[in-house]
Amino acid sequence: MPVTDVAIDKIKDMIISGELAPGDRLPKEAELAQRLGLSRSSLREAVKALCLIRVLDVRQGDGTYVTSLEPNLLLDAMTFVVDFHRDDTVLDFLAVRRILEPAATALAAVHMGEDDITELGILLDELADAPTIEALLANDLRFHRKIAEGSGNPVLCSLLDSLSGPTTRARIWRGLTQEGAVARTREQHAAIYEAIAAHEPELARSWATVHVAGVEQWLRNTLTPSVADAGSDAAAS
Amino acid sequence: MPVTDVAIDKIKDMIISGELAPGDRLPKEAELAQRLGLSRSSLREAVKALCLIRVLDVRQGDGTYVTSLEPNLLLDAMTFVVDFHRDDTVLDFLAVRRILEPAATALAAVHMGEDDITELGILLDELADAPTIEALLANDLRFHRKIAEGSGNPVLCSLLDSLSGPTTRARIWRGLTQEGAVARTREQHAAIYEAIAAHEPELARSWATVHVAGVEQWLRNTLTPSVADAGSDAAAS
DNA sequence: GCACACCGAAACATCCGAGGTCTCTGGAGG
DNA sequence: CCTCCAGAGACCTCGGATGTTTCGGTGTGC
Lengths: 237, 237
Known about the structure:
The structure is a homodimer.
Chain A: H1 3-16, H2 29-36, H3 40-52, E1 56-59, E2 63-66, H4 71-82, H5 87-111, H6 114-126, H7 133-150, H8 154-177, H9 181-197, H10 201-223
Antiparallel strand pairs in A: 1-2
Helix pairs in contact in A: 1-3, 2-3, 4-8, 5-7, 5-8, 5-9, 5-10, 6-7, 6-9, 7-8, 9-10
The first copy, chain A, binds a DNA duplex through helix 3.
């Protein structure tokens, strides 16, 4: 195993064992390199890798620190990973979101405080009557994020955040190509809000399911148009 | 932004744009470094970081390749991230698993083929009458993994795999400390298997819910013994 | 006494070049 | 046809030198 990978494990162990706590500063490069028995170059590779997944935070001119290691921070790194997936797997991601989003919405209906519910309502009102696609999408993301936060589970919230990435593109297409989508989205958001405000978890769950399933169904039909109007390239057999 | 981070984005873009396809080999270090306008040292840091999240695969003496980029591979990297979380957040992870596992089990009851169902049954029978904790745990992991695969959704499967990590320790404790846990686990596994074999998604979902919730409830009581059995974390005030 | 600008130390960022080690490949020999 | 073995190619590791940024102390002027 390359020395760099060993260094990654060593640093990881130092954190997990508690020798390095969140927020702690690491020894300077030269010092840590000598202690781990490798060169600064190789150590820098290890540090850079741990930086990418938000475990370490390097500040030039200052030092290298352990991040807070909070779930939202670490799972944010998953967004980077998810970006690599293209349209062929977006349905799989959406399917997972369809499982998590209703559950999160139901939890939000139970756990959300009145203040947060009020803010959620404000989000709905902020949207202009004829919003641009960009404004609608931004509002949509904030709306769902607020609900995810309201679930009270940071892991669930971060996971949903990451999953929103790949489906965002799909929603853009939808807004652009499907006429009634904008109005329908607003109606469903309002319904979800009402259910949460009334503290009705099952109703909230159902509306969320309907909401996500709508996107999923549309996307499924769009990605497999072969059944609708064949005749393009299907000359075989 | 440091040149290394720029390089990471450049390589990422090369992959996303399709210039580099899964399995493709990258230009040699010196060549790519010159092309991206940085030194080999800095480029190596970028490559190492992308290696950690399984986007690139470097083989000494051969070259650097783009991995298959399959969801299971990329989400496997999340296991590394999850390792950093300790017991204080394990309940949050378990709560997410409690959402996903029943859904996956229900999907498996619909989608699993007869061959896979047979293999699932074999897994149950393989376990000795008085298994060691290690054997039980290994069998448990394989059992749930098989079901996750049976859902037909690789993203869901990988996600559950990653979530199993943090809860594994908890299950070890449970097996060690709670007398009836072993027998109960076997009974519930059998029930889940029967429901899947009968292609009854709702029954399968319910058994899976019961199964995971059992661990969750036990863990919640163990971690917060002070409240006795209030059953909720609502420490409102 | 307080606020601001300056300056030096500390730490990371980047680069370069030199050996070392591993893997793949192709040819010689059996 | 199979096996063995050099050679080339590519990554691995190292050490040092130089540039950049940040932090904190210091001194000045108000």
